[in-house]
Amino acid sequence: MDNLLQQLNTVRGVGGSLLISDEGLTMASSLRNDIDEESVAASAADIIERSKSMSEKLNNEAPTLIHSQGQNGGIIVLAAGQAFLVILTDPNSNLALLQLEATPYAESIAKQLSL
Amino acid sequence: MDPEIERLRKKVENYPSPSAYNRLAELLRDSKDYDGVKSVCTRCIREFKRNGTAYIILAEVYINQGNHSDATSLLEDAIKQDPRSAEAFCMLASAHEASGATQDAIACLHKALDLKPGDAEIQERISKVSTSAPSAPAPAGRTDSGTIDMTGMSLSMSSGAASAPAAASEPIAFDAQPRTSAPVNAPAPAPQAKAANPLSALLDEAGVIGVVVADDQGRVVSSEQMADGQETVFAALAHEVSTGCEEALNHLQQAPLANWSVTTPSGLLMAFRRNAELTLLVQAKSDCKIAMIELRARQALIDLGGA
Prior knowledge:
- With about 120 residues, chain A is an alpha+beta fold.
- Chain A contains three helices and five strands.
- Chain A has a five-stranded antiparallel sheet with strand order 2-1-5-4-3, with helices on both faces.
- Chain A is globular.
- Chain B has two domains: about 5-170, Alpha Horseshoe (Serine Threonine Protein Phosphatase 5, Tetratricopeptide repeat), CATH 1.25.40.10; about 195-305, Beta-Lactamase (2-Layer Sandwich), CATH 3.30.450.30.
- In chain B, α4 (about 50-65) packs antiparallel against α5.
- Chain B is an alpha+beta fold.
- Chain B is built from twelve helices and five strands.
C-alpha cells in the first residue's frame, strides 16, 4: 500500500498522501517529514465525519469525494472502499486532472482492502 | 521587491481574483509604483468589470497625479457599474474638488450621503467643502502635504508603516437589497430589484438546485430555490464542514479556506467563501459544470459585498 501512495505522490500537483480508516487511524502514509501524519489523519477524519453528516441529511448519500481548497494548497479525500485516500495538493495543481489520475488509485485500494 | 507583491503577482497570474488584484494594487500604490498600479487596475477592470475597488484605487492615483479628467471618467464608469457605491461617489467628489468643481463635488457627496444616510464623515466633508466653496481655488481638497483630503472615504493614500485598512483590500459592497433610505423624491426602486439579484446568474447555471448565503456563524442570510427547511440545515452543517476544513488547512499551513465541495453519487454540495464573513452554499446535480458554478459564485460574492 505504501508503494501505491509513493506512486500517487509522483502525480503532478500531489504534495503527499495517506490512507486512513473512517475513525481517522492511519493505514498507510507517504507524507513529507515536516507534516504531522496523525494530525492530518485526525483532521481528515473530522472533515469526513462532518461532510458525511451533511450529505446524508441533504442528499441521503455518503460522500465519495471531498475537496477543501485553501489559499496555499488543498486536501482531497476520496472514498476507497472501507478506507479514505487523503491527498494533499499543491496550490497550482490541476484539480480536474488530479482527480482523474487519483481515482484509479482509490479504486485499486478499495479492491485490495476488500480481498 | 516586496515578497508580498511578488506573491500577489504570481497569484493574479495563476488564480486571478478581485481581492488579490486589489491588494496588489494597494501595495504598489503604497510603494509609489504608480505605473504598476495602473497596469494592475486596468487588467483587473478588464477581467472583473464589476470590481469597484480597482476603479477607485486607479482613480486615486490619477487624482494625485493631477489627471482629473481620466479620474472622473473612470469613476463615472464605476458608478455605472454600481450606482449604489457611496465610495465611488466620494472619490468622484474628490476628483471634482481637486479640479475646482466644488458644486459638483458637493452634489456627489450628497449622493453618497443618500446611499449612506447619517454617515458622519460624509456629512463632515459636505460641510467642509461647502464652507470652502466660495473661495475654492483649483487645488481645493488637497492638504498641505499635497495629498487629497479623503475624509469620508474608505480608502487611504497613506504609505509606509501605516497600511490601508483591511476593508480596503476587498471589493466594494454591491448590495442587491433595495435601500430603504432612498431620498423621498427618488423613483421607486422595486421594478429593478429582481434584475439586480446577485444570485440570478448562479441560479441560472445548469445543474444548480439551490443556493444559500450564510453568515460566519452558520445562519441563513438568504436562500433561493432550496426545499422547505433545507436551507437552515445546509447552512448549519456546512458551517461545521467549513470549520473542519479550516482546521485541517491550518495544520497544513494552507489556510485560509477558499472553498470546499462534497460529492455524492447524485450531486454536489459546495461552499465558496469571501473572507470569513459570507459563505455561498450551492446544492447542485452531479452533471453540473463545477468551474462555471465557481465562477458565478465568486461573482455573486463580489456582488453581495461584505460587512
